[in-house]
Write a structure and sequence with these properties.
This protein is of the alpha/beta class and 346 residues long. It folds into 2 domains: 1-127 and 150-212, 3-Layer(aba) Sandwich (Alpha-D-Glucose-1,6-Bisphosphate, Chain A, domain 3), CATH 3.40.120; 279-343, no CATH class. 44% of the residues lie in helices and 11% in strands. It has helices spanning 4-11, 37-54, 89-96, 101-124, 135-148, 150-153, 169-182, 195-206, 226-240, 265-286, 308-313, 317-322, and strands at residues 29-32, 58-62, 71-77, 158-163, 186-192, 300-303, 327-330, 342-343. The strands form 2 sheets. The protein has a 5-stranded mixed beta sheet, sandwiched between helices. It has a 3-stranded mixed beta sheet with strand order 6-7-8. Strand 4 (158-163), helix 7 (169-182) and strand 5 (186-192) form a beta-alpha-beta unit. Pfam families: PGM_PMM_I. Belongs to the phosphohexose mutase family.
């Protein structure tokens, strides 16, 4: 359990803004950036609570997408890489709008209790054992036990923290980090990332085994039994694996493990992500053909909206060029009020 005295002392530095009552929705919290330090701090508290209860890493993305540059916002990311469940949106909204630090601490205690009870009920309805009647079933059982052993994989869960290129980002990152650490959880900064990239990093940090394979069942996290996914994966790979070209030589088939080097995981995860994207494109254009990828011809124009997408897409220019696709980036934000073009190098 966290030390409530630490949270009480820390929360005083981020008092609630008067006449500002944000509500969490599909886009998270969004508002003019100067209104958000308290909201961001308390979202840090909530994300840390979630990681403690789930015994998995969670995430916070600080961004406001296409809102005006003076705005900013925050989205909370679940251990699976999915958005915060809708039934938790009213809870985080109530937490963020706590009147003062004392009400905040009381709510934190209540939320931890209710989440822990709900999580125990979910696990009690799920039978962790798998009956193994043959060698294949025994192998499946071993793989499933790895996926379920959350305490063995991540003994000290953290909150992965990412942001876009808005001027207010660093101020709000500091507020979120203060909230995370006030609950006794570590914040690992991922720096500039797109929202999908942070969702990916959170999921990868918790379930690296799933990303070691070329095809994933998109409904895996909805299945009660991981063996369903594993059996489907084996059937699919036994049918058409020979028809799929091998990945690019520079791409490791094994995903990076968060537990091995937590501080280096964001950069390792992104590098692996870029390699897999380029490899996936090369495999896509080569399916059904033994020939090499086509030579680059007409470029694919990408409107980066002067945002973080331009910065995070640039590492893909050369790999995608080598895979047969030329990307031409526009509105990269590198020139004031202008339109700048970035293209892959041959």
């Amino acid at each position: 359990m966290f030390d409530s005295s630490i949270l009480l002392k820390s929360a005083k530095a981020y008092p609630k803004m008067e006449n500002f009552t944000p509500s969490y929705g599909t886009a998270g919290f969004r508002a003019e950036a100067s209104l958000l330090p308290c909201t961001m701090y308390r979202c840090g508290v909530f994300a840390a609570i979630r990681s403690i209860v789930k015994k998995k890493n969670t995430g916070i993305m600080i961004t406001a997408s296409h809102n005006p540059i003076a705005d900013n916002g925050v989205k909370l990311i679940e251990p699976t890489g999915e958005n915060l469940p809708q039934d938790l949106e009213p809870i985080v909204t109530k937490l963020v709008n706590s009147h003062d630090e004392y009400e905040l601490v009381n709510m934190v205690n209540a939320i931890i209790m209710s989440m822990s009870v709900a999580d125990q009920q979910v696990h009690s309805n799920h039978n962790p054992s798998i009956q193994a009647s043959n060698d294949d079933e025994k192998s499946l059982s071993a793989e499933c036990s790895i996926l379920r052993a959350s305490n063995d994989i991540i003994t000290t869960p953290v909150v992965l923290l990412g942001h876009d290129t808005r001027p207010s980002a660093q101020m709000l990152v500091a507020a979120a980090r203060a909230g995370i650490e006030a609950v006794g959880v570590t914040a690992i900064q991922c720096g500039h990332v797109t929202t999908p990239q942070l969702h990916f990093l959170v999921s990868l940090s918790n379930f690296p085994e799933l990303y070691d394979h070329d095809r994933m069942d998109p409904d895996f996290f909805d299945n009660e039994d991981p063996s369903i996914h594993l059996k489907k994966r084996r059937i699919e790979s036994s049918v058409d694996a020979s028809a799929i070209p091998t990945p690019l030589p520079s791409v490791s088939p094994k995903a990076p493990r968060f537990a091995e080097r937590p501080a280096e995981f964001p950069s390792q995860g992104l590098n692996w992500y870029y390699g897999r994207v380029a490899s996936a494109y090369r495999r896509l254009v080569a399916v059904g053909s033994s020939s090499s990828p086509p030579s680059p011809s007409f470029p694919l124009f990408v409107d980066c909206a002067n945002g973080v997408g331009a910065r995070m897409l640039k590492p893909l220019l050369a790999p995608m060029e080598s895979a047969g696709l030329t990307l031409s980036l526009r509105n990269t934000g590198d020139e004031d009020g202008g339109e700048k073009e970035e293209r892959g190098k041959k």
